[in-house]
Amino acid sequence: MLNSMNRKVSIVIFLFSIIYLIYSYQIEPSPFAKIDADIMPKGLGYLLLILSVFLFIENKEETEQEKAKRNISKQEIGLLLLIVLFVLLYITLLEFIGFIIVTILFLTATSRMLGYTSWIRMFIIFGIFTLVIYVSFNELLGLSLPSGILPF
Protein backbone atom coordinates (compact mmCIF):
# COMPACT_ATOMS: atom_id res chain seq x y z
CA MET A 1 0.00 0.00 0.00
CA LEU A 2 2.74 2.49 0.89
CA ASN A 3 5.22 1.27 -1.67
CA SER A 4 5.86 4.62 -3.37
CA MET A 5 7.20 7.86 -1.97
CA ASN A 6 4.17 9.73 -3.34
CA ARG A 7 1.82 7.71 -1.16
CA LYS A 8 3.90 8.32 1.96
CA VAL A 9 4.08 12.04 1.24
CA SER A 10 0.36 12.19 0.46
CA ILE A 11 -0.51 10.76 3.88
CA VAL A 12 1.66 13.36 5.60
CA ILE A 13 0.06 16.14 3.53
CA PHE A 14 -3.42 14.74 4.22
CA LEU A 15 -2.82 14.77 7.99
CA PHE A 16 -1.33 18.26 7.80
CA SER A 17 -4.35 19.53 5.85
CA ILE A 18 -6.74 18.07 8.45
CA ILE A 19 -4.88 19.87 11.24
CA TYR A 20 -4.74 23.03 9.12
CA LEU A 21 -8.51 22.88 8.51
CA ILE A 22 -9.21 22.38 12.22
CA TYR A 23 -7.31 25.56 13.00
CA SER A 24 -8.88 27.46 10.10
CA TYR A 25 -12.33 26.76 11.54
CA GLN A 26 -11.24 28.39 14.79
CA ILE A 27 -10.77 31.80 13.14
CA GLU A 28 -13.32 34.20 14.61
CA PRO A 29 -15.80 35.65 12.12
CA SER A 30 -15.85 39.40 11.61
CA PRO A 31 -19.20 41.17 11.93
CA PHE A 32 -18.12 43.84 9.41
CA ALA A 33 -16.92 41.79 6.45
CA LYS A 34 -18.97 39.96 3.84
CA ILE A 35 -16.00 37.83 2.83
CA ASP A 36 -14.43 36.79 6.08
CA ALA A 37 -10.81 36.13 6.99
CA ASP A 38 -11.44 32.39 7.19
CA ILE A 39 -12.35 31.95 3.50
CA MET A 40 -8.80 31.74 2.18
CA PRO A 41 -7.42 29.37 4.86
CA LYS A 42 -10.42 27.05 4.50
CA GLY A 43 -10.18 27.06 0.71
CA LEU A 44 -6.46 26.30 0.81
CA GLY A 45 -7.01 23.58 3.39
CA TYR A 46 -9.62 21.83 1.27
CA LEU A 47 -7.49 22.21 -1.85
CA LEU A 48 -4.54 20.65 -0.04
CA LEU A 49 -6.77 17.83 1.19
CA ILE A 50 -8.10 17.08 -2.31
CA LEU A 51 -4.65 17.23 -3.90
CA SER A 52 -3.25 14.85 -1.29
CA VAL A 53 -6.00 12.34 -2.15
CA PHE A 54 -5.15 12.66 -5.86
CA LEU A 55 -1.48 12.11 -5.07
CA PHE A 56 -2.36 9.00 -3.07
CA ILE A 57 -4.51 7.40 -5.77
CA GLU A 58 -2.00 8.16 -8.53
CA ASN A 59 -0.87 4.76 -9.73
CA LYS A 60 2.47 5.52 -11.34
CA GLU A 61 5.57 3.51 -10.59
CA GLU A 62 8.72 5.46 -9.86
CA THR A 63 11.58 4.99 -12.31
CA GLU A 64 15.20 4.71 -11.29
CA GLN A 65 15.81 8.17 -12.70
CA GLU A 66 13.07 9.65 -10.49
CA LYS A 67 14.50 7.87 -7.46
CA ALA A 68 17.91 9.33 -8.24
CA LYS A 69 16.41 12.83 -8.33
CA ARG A 70 15.37 12.45 -4.68
CA ASN A 71 18.98 12.39 -3.52
CA ILE A 72 19.82 15.88 -2.32
CA SER A 73 23.41 16.96 -1.92
CA LYS A 74 24.70 18.34 1.37
CA GLN A 75 25.33 21.68 -0.32
CA GLU A 76 21.66 21.95 -1.33
CA ILE A 77 20.52 20.97 2.17
CA GLY A 78 22.80 23.64 3.61
CA LEU A 79 21.35 26.22 1.22
CA LEU A 80 17.81 25.18 2.16
CA LEU A 81 18.57 25.50 5.88
CA LEU A 82 20.18 28.90 5.30
CA ILE A 83 17.07 30.13 3.48
CA VAL A 84 14.87 28.82 6.32
CA LEU A 85 17.10 30.76 8.74
CA PHE A 86 16.69 33.88 6.59
CA VAL A 87 12.90 33.45 6.61
CA LEU A 88 12.91 33.23 10.42
CA LEU A 89 15.15 36.29 10.58
CA TYR A 90 12.78 38.11 8.20
CA ILE A 91 9.80 37.31 10.42
CA THR A 92 11.69 38.41 13.53
CA LEU A 93 12.93 41.73 12.12
CA LEU A 94 9.76 42.69 10.22
CA GLU A 95 8.13 44.62 13.10
CA PHE A 96 11.30 46.32 14.29
CA ILE A 97 12.95 47.42 11.06
CA GLY A 98 9.87 47.57 8.85
CA PHE A 99 8.39 45.90 5.81
CA ILE A 100 10.16 47.92 3.12
CA ILE A 101 13.74 47.58 4.35
CA VAL A 102 13.51 43.98 5.55
CA THR A 103 11.73 42.78 2.40
CA ILE A 104 14.26 44.37 0.05
CA LEU A 105 17.15 42.93 2.08
CA PHE A 106 15.52 39.49 2.32
CA LEU A 107 14.74 39.24 -1.39
CA THR A 108 18.20 40.48 -2.34
CA ALA A 109 20.02 38.12 0.04
CA THR A 110 18.04 35.03 -0.94
CA SER A 111 18.34 35.81 -4.65
CA ARG A 112 22.08 36.25 -4.22
CA MET A 113 22.28 32.87 -2.48
CA LEU A 114 20.38 31.29 -5.37
CA GLY A 115 22.90 32.61 -7.89
CA TYR A 116 21.73 35.99 -9.17
CA THR A 117 24.68 38.35 -9.42
CA SER A 118 23.46 41.78 -10.52
CA TRP A 119 23.15 43.73 -7.26
CA ILE A 120 21.90 46.95 -8.87
CA ARG A 121 19.21 45.20 -10.90
CA MET A 122 18.06 43.24 -7.83
CA PHE A 123 17.80 46.38 -5.67
CA ILE A 124 15.83 48.21 -8.35
CA ILE A 125 13.42 45.34 -9.06
CA PHE A 126 12.92 44.39 -5.41
CA GLY A 127 12.64 48.04 -4.38
CA ILE A 128 9.90 48.74 -6.91
CA PHE A 129 8.13 45.46 -6.10
CA THR A 130 8.22 46.14 -2.35
CA LEU A 131 7.02 49.73 -2.73
CA VAL A 132 4.13 48.63 -4.97
CA ILE A 133 3.08 46.04 -2.38
CA TYR A 134 3.45 48.55 0.48
CA VAL A 135 1.42 51.27 -1.27
CA SER A 136 -1.21 48.75 -2.41
CA PHE A 137 -1.77 47.50 1.11
CA ASN A 138 -1.63 50.88 2.85
CA GLU A 139 -3.47 53.08 0.36
CA LEU A 140 -5.71 50.81 -1.71
CA LEU A 141 -6.66 48.16 0.84
CA GLY A 142 -6.37 50.29 3.97
CA LEU A 143 -4.20 47.67 5.69
CA SER A 144 -1.06 48.93 7.37
CA LEU A 145 2.19 47.04 7.02
CA PRO A 146 4.92 47.55 9.63
CA SER A 147 6.81 50.78 8.88
CA GLY A 148 9.53 50.09 11.45
CA ILE A 149 12.27 52.72 11.52
CA LEU A 150 10.93 54.59 8.48
CA PRO A 151 8.81 57.68 9.26
CA PHE A 152 5.90 56.75 6.97
Automatic annotation (TrEMBL):
Residue ranges of domain DUF1468 in the record: 9-146
Top-level lineage group: Bacteria
Transmembrane segments: 9-27, 39-57, 78-107, 119-137
Record keywords, A-Z: Membrane, Transmembrane, Transmembrane helix
A Pfam family reported for this protein in Swiss-Prot or TrEMBL: TctB
Protein name as catalogued: Tripartite tricarboxylate transporter TctB family protein
Source species of the chain: Chengkuizengella marina
Taxonomy of the source species: Bacteria, Bacillati, Bacillota, Bacilli, Bacillales
